[in-house]
Design goal:
- The protein is built from 7 helices and no strands.
- It has 116 residues and is an all-alpha fold.
- The chain has 2 domains: 60 residues, 434 Repressor (Amino-terminal Domain) (Orthogonal Bundle); 30 residues, no CATH class.
- The longest helix is centred in the last third of the chain and has 17 residues.
- The protein starts with a helix and ends with a helix.
- GO terms for molecular function: DNA binding.
- Pfam families: HTH_3.
- This is Transcriptional repressor DicA.
Length: 116
């Protein structure tokens, strides 16, 4: 599963922005940004809004599982699902699983799909 910092580095690469420029524009120390990459940690919550502003993404795009599409509009690959529905409960349960369990579940779903 991708971390928030993984998404940040993907966006930096996509935008052709260096870590140094990102640090200057956000006011976040370069050493902190390097730690995100080396130690696979995430930025502190009070930096999320400035990060989103500099990277031109919404907090939803950065923090959710929604993939960045290069603009702020929703595309056909993004869904809003109520937690009250069966699908919502399925998604919520999936997100609580560790990575290995998520992979197994995806494998089960692919096998079931081939049976039908």
């Amino acid at each position: 599963m991708k971390t928030i910092s993984d998404k940040i580095f993907e966006l930096l690469k996509e935008k052709g922005m260096s870590q140094k420029e990102f640090a200057q524009r956000t006011g976040i120390a370069e050493s902190s940004i390097s730690d995100w990459k080396k130690k696979r940690t995430n930025p502190v919550s009070d930096k999320i809004l400035i990060i989103c502003e500099v990277l031109d993404v919404t907090p939803y795009e950065l923090l959710s599982g929604a993939e960045h599409t290069g603009n702020r509009s929703r595309d056909n690959n993004t869904y809003v699902i109520s937690k009250e529905t069966e699908i919502g409960m399925l998604v919520e349960t999936y997100q609580k699983l560790d990575t290995n369990a998520q992979k197994r579940l995806i494998g089960y779903l692919e096998a079931l799909k081939e049976l039908s």
